Amino acid sequence: MKALLQRVTEAAVHVDGDCVGAIGPGLLVLLGLDKGDDLAVADKLLDKLLAYRVFGDEHGRMNLSVTDTGGGVLLVSQFTLSADTRKGLRPSFSRALPPAEAEALYQQILSRLQDRHPTVAAGSFGADMQVSLVNDGPVTFLLEVGG
User: Fold this and answer.
1) What DSSP state is assigned to residue 79?
2) Which of 22, 47, 96, 130 is an S-S bond match for 12, by CB 3.0 to 4.6 Å?
3) What is the pLDDT of residues 12-57, one digit of tens each?
4) Where is this motif: Gly-cisPro motif, important for rejection of L-amino acids (predicted)?
5) For residues 147 and 129, what is the distance between their CA atoms, to the nearest angstrom?
C-alpha cells in the first residue's frame, strides 16, 4: 500500500464540475492499493499517516502530525501509484489491486479514517477527478506499508 502525502494549505477534488471533497490546511493523501493489501495493512498505514510529523512546530521543525495540528485529510484513490515503471515506456498495472477489491478496501479505509480523525474529505473512487492543491513547502512524502 502506498500513500503519497502532500502537506497543503488547501486541496479540493471535483467530479463533473462539482466539488466532492475539500480541506483547508492539512494533508492530501493519494492512495495506491496493491495486490495483497488488506485491512491489517491499512491500519498500519493509517497509524503512520496520522502520526507522521510533517508540520512545523514553534521552531519551524517538522515535529507535528496532522493529528497534532487538527488539520484536514483529503483521501483520494490513485491506482497509478501501483504502476510498475521499471521497464519500457508504458506503465504496467499488474501489481494493482483489482478495481472491485480496491473500491471495497478504499471505502473501509475511508470509514476507519473518519472514525479516527475529525476532519476528513474524499474523492470519488474510480471517477475522473480533478484534484487541485496548494502544496505547502512544498512537502511531499511517499509512505509504503506492507503486510
Assistant:
1) G
2) 22
3) 999 999 999 999 999 999 999 999 999 999 999 999 999 999 999 9
4) 137-138
5) 29
Res 146: pLDDT: 86
Contact 119, 72 (CB under 8 A): yes
d(CA 146, CA 49): 14
pTM of the model: 0.95
- Map residue 6 onto helix, strand or coil: strand
Q: Is 45 helix (H, G, I), strand (E, B) or coil?
A: helix
CA distance 138 to 82: 23
The 10s digit of each residue's pLDDT in 102-131 is 999 999 999 999 999 999 999 999 999 999
Which residues does the annotation mark as catalytic? Answer: 78-80
User: How many C-beta atoms lie closer than 10 Å to residue 58's C-beta?
Assistant: 7
Q: For the chain, which domains are there?
A: 2-144 (3.50.80.10)
The CA-based dihedral angle spanning residues 112, 113, 118, 124, taken in that order and rounded to the nearest 10 degrees: -110
Question: What average pLDDT score do residues 78-86 get?
Answer: 93
